[in-house]
Specification:
The complex is a heterodimer of chains A (201) and B (518). Chain A is built from four helices and eight strands; from the N terminus they run αααββββββαββ. Chain A is of the alpha+beta class. Chain A is elongated and about 120 Å long. Classes of the chains: A alpha+beta (201), B alpha+beta (518).
Amino acid sequence: MKPLDARLTQSATVLLAASVVVVSWLRGYQSAVQIEQRDRDRLVKLTQEISQVDATIKTDGGKGTWLEHHHHTLEKLKARFPQQTQLPQLLNALIDALKTSEMHVVNITQGNLEPVQEAGQPLLVDGAPCYRLPVTVAAAGRYHVILAALDRITTDTFPAVVGLQQIEWQVNQAGGATLNATMILHLYVVGSAPVTSSSHP
Amino acid sequence: MRIGLELGARTLKVAWRFKRPSGETGWGYREYPRSHDPHLEAISRDLAQLLRPLRRHRLRAHVVLAAPISSLRWLTVRVSDLSRIPDAVREQLPSLLPFDVEHAQVQFVLRRQQHIDQELECTVSVAACERTALQQELEALWRIGWTPSEVIPAALALVATAKALDAIHDEPVAFVDIGERRTTIALIDHGDVVYARDVTLGDDHLTDVLMGQVTIGGTTLSLTREQAHALKQHAGIPDAQSLATVGQPPIPTTTYLAMIQPILEQLASEVRRTMAFGTHAAMTAAPARVWLSGEGARLPHCEAWFSKQLGVPVTVLRCDQLVGSDAALAAVTCGLTLGERRSTLDLQPRAWHQRRVWIRIAAGIWKGLATVTLLLWLGVGIWSFQHRRVTQQLTRLETRWRELQPVLALQESLETHTRLLHHLVAERGISLDWFRQLTREFPPAVRLTRLVVGTESTVQMSGQAQEREQTPEAAVSAFTQWLEQAKMCHDVQLGSTTRGGPTGNLVEFTLTCQRIRR
C-alpha cells in the first residue's frame, strides 16, 4: 500500500491541531476563566451582602435580638391589616377617634366593600386578598383640629390602615376660622375568600 | 543536528553530528544492509530501519544526501555578460558529463571571473548527477517521511572530511573513495575540488570475482559471498612471492591474484586516467599524494599496491577521531555531516526542496499549535486551582448566608409590608405630609377660603390676599410662586382675581394646580 503523502498528513495535522486549539480555547480555557470569574463575582457579592446584613444586625446587638425586635415590628405592621370580620369594630374606632377631638362630626356614611386591585390583579397581603371600605366623613372644625384628627386615624397606633382619598373644605363664614370639611377615607382589611376583579363583596 | 546519508549498493549508512548540552560535538554512525529487492518499497523499508533512531529529528535536522553517480569539474567559459553563463555551461555539458544530459541534474556556481578582450572569462564549478537514480532515492526517503535538506556530490563530502582531518594543504592531492560498487575520485588543488568523477567499480566487484569457480589440483571450488568477502578482507592484495596460499580452504596466491588483479588494475587505471585528465584540465600540478578511503581501503596492503601502480605515496584516510572506529573508512558519510552552511552545489531538484519547505512549515505550525494547546490547558489548570480556592471560600460564605436567611426573610417581609403601607396611604391616597408642609410654610398675606384635594392630583384653591408689605396682586403672585418653589404643586394656573374688601385692599382669587406626591 502506498503511504499517504507527507504534505497531506502534515496539513491534516495542522488542521487537527488548529481545531484542538480552538476547542481548548472555547471549551477549556475560556470556560475555566468564565467559571472562575463568575464564582469570584459571586464571592465578592456575597461578601458584601453578608457584611451589610452583619452590620444591620450588629446595631441591634446581634442576630437574636434583631430577630426578636423586628418580629415584633412585623407583627405590629400585620396587625394594621385586620380581618374583614373586624369591620364593625374598626368603624367604631374610627368614629371614636374623630369624635374625641374638638372636631364636630356632622355625618359619616359608608360605601360597599371593594377588592383592591393592582395592575388588574387582586392585591394580596400575606396571601390574602385586600379589601377597602370607602367612608365619607362630613365635619366642621378649625384647620389644625381637622388635621390632628386625620393624624390620629393614620398613625401606627390606629388598628387599621386608613387612606385619605379626597378632602374638600371651605370657610363656613367670611372672616371665620371654622371650616366645613368633607373627607373620603378608605379603610383597608383582608379577607379570606378568593376574589375576582369584577366582584363586589 | 546534521545528518549525512549515503545509500550504498549493499549497505545504507547514516552518520550524524550534534551538539551536546556541554557544548561538545557528538557523533553517531549506523549502517543497515540493503535488501536485494530493487523495488522502492524495499528500499523505503530498509531506510526506515536505518533511520528509526533519528526519526524525530528528520524535519529539524539538516539532512544531507550523497548524490548517486555524480561528476564535478571546473569549467572555463567566455561570455559577453554574466547572464549568458547558464547557456554557455549548457552548451558544454554533453562533452563534460559521463551520462545523458537530458537525464542529468545539474548545478553550477561561479568561482572566478576576469575581463579578457571585451569578454568575461568565467571559471565555474559544475556538479551533476543522474536524475533518475536521484529521484528514486528521494522518493524512497519521501515514502518514510524524510526529505533531504540538500544533495551534494560524494566528492564534496570527501573533501569536507579531509579538511576536518587536516589532510589537505596547498599541494594538489587526490582522494579515492572505494565504495561497494562505486568509486569516487576527487582531485583537490589549493583546497578546492577541481575535478571529480564517480566510476561504477568498487570493492564488491572484487567479491564478485572471488565467487567465480576456480579449479585447484583437479578440484573445482566455488566460494559463497561471505567466504569470498572474508578471504578478501583477510588476504587483501598479497605479494605472490612471500605467500604461497591464502584463505581456508587454501587457494594459491597466484590464483587469487589472477582473480582480483583485473578489477584492481581497472580501478588503478581509472584513477590514473582521472589524475592525468584532471591535471591537464584544471590543476596547477599533478597530485603529490593519494588518499584512500571507503570499503576498498580495508584491503590489507592496498596502500602499497596502489602506490606502486600510481607512482605517488598513498595513505588511508581514517576518520576514527571524528565519527569513531565503526565508521573509520566511511569518509563520504562522515563528510556529509560536516560543514555548517548549505552547499552552493546542491543537486536536489527544486520541487523536492519545496516539499521539504512545505512539510517543515506545516510541522512548525502544528508543533506551535500543540504548544499553544499545552499552554492553554496549563492555564486551565491554574484557573481551576484558583477556582478551587474560590469555591472553598464560597462554601464557607454560603453556609453563613444560609444562617442569615431568617434575618433576610424577616427583612424582606418588613420591607414588603412597609412598602404596601406606603403605597396604600401615600401613593393611592393623599399624604398628610403635604398638608403639614402647607400649614408650616404658608405665606402670611394669603388666606385660603376653599381647598379641594383629590387622589387624581388636581388641587383647587380659592382664597384672599391682603395688602401688607406689598400689593395683594403681588401677594397672590408670590403665593403661586411659593407653591412651585416649595414643591407643593406644579402647573399652577391662576383663575380669576377680583379686588374687593371694605377699603379695596383685598384680592379674591381662584387657582388650580397639580399636587406633587410625597
